[in-house]
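Task card 7
Instruction: Convert sequence to structure tokens.
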Amino acid sequence: MHLLVRAVREPGLPGRAVLAPTVLCHHQAPSGAGQADLFRWFNDGGGNSVRFSAVHSEEGGRFFRFAYRYVIVEAATGAAVELPPDARWLTVEQVQRFVASGSASVELRNLLACMEPAQAS
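Output:
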């Protein structure tokens, strides 16, 4: 299994990027270059299947009424998408190495936790 992830810069982490989910939306709109096309690709069907969708409060509700919708989408067999320069397909094991080294965003770590244990190991 491969996961489509992006390298992003986050506040408080000067000089390095971390792995993040493919699309991160704020206020219902994708943020960042290239994300609008990926957002449409995931949401326009085309044989893609939603495998998981749930709303989770961020870090136990640390921020008042702040929540993310986490969605895991399985790409259709043979699906093709043009990737922005900051996106790559990585195996679950490769992503887990980034998590272990502290180089994955909290949103990506939460998505990994939402995967079925058999898929994430």
